[in-house]
Amino acid sequence: MERRKMCWRRLLCLTLAALVLASCLTMTAFAADPQDSEENGIVDFVLVLDCSGSLNVTDPSHLCATACKMFVDMVPLENARISVIAFGYDGGTQYTLKNMSIDNPLDLKKVYLVSDMVEASAIKDKNALKQQVTDATSKSGTNTPLGTALLSAVDLLENNGASDKNACVILLTDGRIAAQQNRYDDKDNAHTAAKTAAPPPRPGSTTHPDWPVYTMHLNDGERYGAGSEETTLMRQIAEESGAGEDGYTPLTSFQEGNAAVARAFMNIFNRFMFGGNGNIITKTADAQGDVTCDFEVPELTSETTVIVSGASLKSVTVNGPDGSSRTVDKNNFDEQNFVATIDSNHESGGRQNKYICIKLLCPEAGMWTVQAKGDPNANIDMYDCSMRDLDLVLSTSLTDESRVLAKNEAVTFNAYFTYHGNEILKNPYYEKKQPVLVFTNTANGQKAELPMQAGANGGYTATISMNELEYQGTFTVAARLDDSMFRNGSKWSNSQSLTSENLPVRITDPKMPDLTGDVNGKTEKVDLMQHIENPDDDELFYELQCVSDRNVAFDYSIDENGYLEIECGLNYGTYALQLSVRDADMEQPLLLDPFQLETQKHAFSVRDIEPVELWTDHYPWQKDIRESAEFDLNDYYDEGDDLPVEIASESFDGDGTVYRVSRDGMHYTVVPLAEGEGTLTFTLTNQLKEEQGHLKVRVISGKAAFWQRNWIYFALAAAVLVLIVIVLCVLSGITRVKGSWEIDLEDGDGGRIYLPNLNIASNTTVGRKNKQVDLWDLVYEIAPFAEKSGLLSESLNFYPAMNQIHMRGVTFGSGFVLQKLPANVTAQYNGLPVSGKCRVSMGELRLTIQGEGTVTDVVCSLRYAGAR
């Protein structure tokens, strides 16, 4: 009978353990947004500790407590929650199942909640939590409800809303089962019973939560070792729950156990926090007790955990790529970007084992160095594990997220990485990969993705106009960065919420200004944006109406900046106008207050100029060159409003219709068709047809026009001709009369010749107008008389000058005129120097003749004696 009871107890316990596996494989995840679950949600860890009395034999070095405390130190500071459940001892807070039930509630009395689910970042004092672990593992009991403990762990995850693929259970046990009852040795039957008792999936889902169970098998290498039932069970739990072969870790000795624990935890963090592979290095200290290890930190690492352990470990120094250095040699060393914990383990073999856990938060990528100091020749282990679980933080330029945005309103989004309060703004990674903003319409689930760019001041940025989304509503916005370096290939930011709606146009100032303008002109421009607000920058539709008694239509234009300009057209006077406005989504337009438009007109008049004349026949002796009259109408009127002017009518007063009028624009041509006279009158009018003027074309005979216009010129020409004849007669008479001259010559010595009546008969020199005679012709005439009278002596050598003339081939009286004075003769006439071609009349002629060594001045007084 006792044997049967033991079998049933074991069967129940195995059933509960298998039930945990079935629960892990069949539970369905709650629906959640990607950014809140798989991509970068919080990872939940549940440590399940075996505190039964059998561990006193299988775990003499207390690796169970050491591993649990090491996990508390290694767990990431962000995006992680941790809980501790203990089983197999008496005391503590009993765990109560909330989502599951078991057949034997007595086993629950041996399952205790050491620490409820708490965020790692909220653990202010890790030593307090580790002390709770120490207190739990220091107690022991006789029962080991392993299956119930695992079932409680799954219940705890479900009760705390753990998401699919983001949670796991870590079981530390020797694998020995000693439940209250139903123990059974048949392993096959136990697994069959477990599958039969497994709970069904959650309603509406067929997926599994995928919460693997990692088993750490504590044994001394002799009991429950390889091939034992306990070992087989631990392997099966790990493999069947999804942890895989690496999910099973045997722990046999302390020294080997530390390395195995570190390796197992690295695998876990690598799976859930997407870290690097990590390194486990064992080195022997030199004669001074120093050990140096290098490790590389990959790009964009959230934290790197370094575990250094050894029985003789005294201090650890970490050197960064930038040359910085930090040394850990005291408990709870905590500094920004650098967290360190020193933990002393239980004594083993008379020596106290110790490990130092160092966390580098947001470390610089590159090669780091760890220098550990211990006893000479002692073994020191170093483990490093880097995790990429940075938070991507998204913020907006909105100060009030509840404010409704206009469709075209621009919002600036900024995103950057952060971890544990450290903002990472400057990093080369921002230039390599850029995220997208995912806009999700909360009403219909429609999504839109818009890119972000690397910001000038670091991080990412994007300025998005809401009309780029092409629809309205309330949106959740999150940034998603796709990269294989992140967990599940993507990193999601936090979500922002914003609402964009069609904001209708509204009138801010209904009073429009009164306007004035000229006929055929435009008014001044009015800025409608001073009266209308268009928050969505929608296309607006305007309508301008005349609301006065005279319903007149006015053309108007509104430019892209909202300026109204009204064309006055041909309307003049005072009008009441009213403007309405609406956008495409409005059924009824909005009305602004009526305003006045006063238009003014200016005078139209025909200029007072001579009529255009048209000759209908020829000049007396040649063809009339003006056998058509052309004129430009613009030259004959003034129109202040620039209104078009045209010929309204034409009439002819005279000898019948003798013309033809053709027009090319404002250019007119009148062609006579027959001889005759009269006046052609054109009546001009402007576009208003209210004011008229007249343009006349006078049609007259060409012959009559010739004599009427030219008789005065003929009279003047005759008078001038008579005057010319008289002058020519006078001049002709003078030039044909040779003259006689009275010449009185006198030298400086008193010598004198008086020629009362000297006839100059040379045809070539005398008889010039103005009673002038050529100077040298006169010299030739008087020289012989002067010589005969002794007034000019031979010594004066006057004749060499004459000889000089002869030498030039010019003879006296030959009719040639000297071109210049002889070299020895100079002359002055009335005090002025003269040359050979000088003309002289009455006055004083002074000749200076240079002889041989002498100078003689001959003064010749001239007086015209009269014609001969």
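That was protein one. Protein two is written in the same sequence-then-structure order:
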Amino acid sequence: MKKLLSLLSFIPLFLWANGPTTIALNDGWQFSQTNKEQWHQATVPGSVQRDLIRLEILPSPYYGTNEDSVQWVEDENWDYKKSFQLTHEQLKYHDALLTFEGLDTHADVFLNGSKIFHSQNMFVNHEASVKHLLREGENNLYIRFYSPVQHLMPNRTTNGFEYPAGNDARDEKMSVYYRKAPYHYGWDWGMRLVQMGIWRPVHLTLYNHARIDDLFVKQETVSKEVAKVTNFIEIQSVDNNPTPAKLTVSYALPGEERKTEERTITLTKGVNKIAVPLKIHNPQLWMPNGWGEPHLYDFTAQLLINDDVVAEKSHQIGLRNIRVVAEDDEHGRSFYFEVNGKPMFAKGANYIPGEIMNTLQNDAYYERLYENVVAANMNMIRVWGGGFYESDKFYQLANEKGILVWQDFMFGCTPYPHDDSFLENVAHEARYNIKRLRNHPSVSIWCGNNEVEESIKYWGYDKVYSKEIMEGFREGYDKTFRKLLPGIVMELDPDKFYVHGSPDTANWGRIPSLSYGDAHYWGVWHGRQPFEVLDKNVPRFMSEFGFQSFPEMKTIRTFATEEDFDIESEVMQSHQKSSIGNEAIKEYMDMYYHTPSNFEDFVYVGLVMQGQGMKHGLEAHRRNRPFCMGTLYWQLNDSWPVVSWSGVDYYNNWKAMHYKARDVFAPIALNVYQEDGVMKIYTLSDELADANNLKLRLSLIDFKGEVIKQIKQQVAVKANASEKVYSIAVADFATTAQQENSVVNAQLIDSMGEAIATSNYFFYWPNKLNLPKTKIDKSIVYADGEYRVTLESNYLAKDVFIEIPTQGAMFSDNFFDLLPGEKKVVTIKSPQLTKEGKTKITVKHLRETY
């Protein structure tokens, strides 16, 4: 029997004699403004605004200042309708489950004229047993979506005060009342587009006897020797009488024979909960990116009645032991992730929704996203609390790539209501998403919110609101984030760490607090502090810090004309949502760089500055290990073409920052750091084994190519650690004049003579360097899909930028220093590149901008 059951586990649903049938209901929808007679074809999943733009009823909101002209849609109600056919045979199934995986947001749903549910939360699915409403032949679905501004306006009226939701780009701050993606209402990197519609798939599942609603593979203990797991299965039976059944749980790695555990059970009508413990000997563990393979087991639960498989549920499970260590110590309180018994330095970024119109995020988008994450040597990504709980594909790829996910609940930067009705809605949202995401090995921490308590404590609300209102803010915070959410996490996912908010204690304006937990450091940018403070103001775990730049010119040209190429133009201001914005970029540029001669050079120098400034911070965090055990910079990506803190722009073009992050996050990296007149060289390693028999080579090279001095030192790189391996007084290494005219090239050389890590260090920022004028010679080999560009210069060319009009082309390197006499080969890859087309390639370096 066990052999037979093992074979059954490979039989797909559509071959089961009595198995369920799932009918997709995404096609054939129409939509209309309420009380209007004109109906239009709708895209599902999608949104009203997305379809209106597709139909050219609305202009592209990304172009020029069009954002203003699309806002009227949010104040209207909109209707959707669809018909579908069912046969007599299909109606013989015992039950029919209608599922909307996501409705945005307040809506009434009708089937054949009967109301089946009301939606009031974008972040949950909606299910209804509808067999009693279905009929042979035509069936009709109808949805009324209510304005995500006007519908809850009475709540604002009775509330008696306006919430301080600074992101909400409208006088009436309605975003706090809706359980809907906060960024739809605007953010300091995003336009306002308050959408509504069917944003996730719709389907009807016909089944007999019972269905498996949930499979939770709870990892009790995991070691190299044995993994003990308990499979908690939740079965919904629709049979009126007790039903004998068999339940199997099987597991296997890809390509291996399945192992199966079987139970004989009796189902009663309603919910049945069964626990099946398993032991897996000598398991292959899931490891984070850079530490090994992220092994994934397929766990499958099958329900058999009369030897027919009637239901099945599967999950990819990575067996691993992840612990967040937050303990008092001699410095304050630690905060770091321990994976399979080893402390891990977290390297990554904050992820925001990849599209303003979030339903545009398809599987190809997520594949590109994770290619960028892995290419930059990251091992963690934070799903920030102002967006939405991501798609299953997002987490599946994180599982497959070995990327840990820091998961926020969807609250950000403002207090929220805390009445019983609101909290009941939040509780349902939390339960649904914890159950949906808890099996993913990548999901490593639950975080209550982004900067909500930070805002209550430090953003000056007490100067605006009464003591009574302030007390309500604090009370609401405790009810939601210190009681409700941790209680649900403890109930449903008890082995994961929960933190009430990010940051949990630290505040960037109170430097001693940086010794406690995770921190958002905004002294650089919002505080207008110089980049150098990042060397000293180092937290235990940096969960946010950042700096802005414009995107490349080819991205700017998608939303602006040459007449708009001015940082003060109306179009540029409309694509800059930060309150200090372009003014701050210019202020920092005046601090560190020569003033560029034109707008295009301003954009280029800004990209360089962002990369160098963020590199400064990332190196400081990694250098200060183990005091600091992680850095997640703000931010990874964009959701539209915009001036922002991102390292990758909307069209998938890497900014300088992403290249610098890749280099600093390398498994073994070198950091040259000057402090109190001493030049110190650090090795930064995430490898799990020491690297011995290495040679450190320090070369002082003037900008015209002369090697002034060279030091060689035998060193070893300590595993999973940062360590100072050499130091020398700056005065003993370079004179004052040499410091203005030379670069320190540091390399780690292995026994084969190959450089395994390289770092170029300049004693000053560019406005205090005597950079030479120089010409870069280039040669190009053209091939379909790939160009090879060879660059060479007699003198130093700093921050070389290779530019190509092709959006999303991938460069092996860019924004790099080309040393005198060095020959650098860069590959550029894109399916749009052709051998015959010879797409134009331009090259510039910093000295050409002044």
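The domain at 668-768 is CATH 2.60.40.10 (Immunoglobulin-like). Keep this in mind for the problem set.
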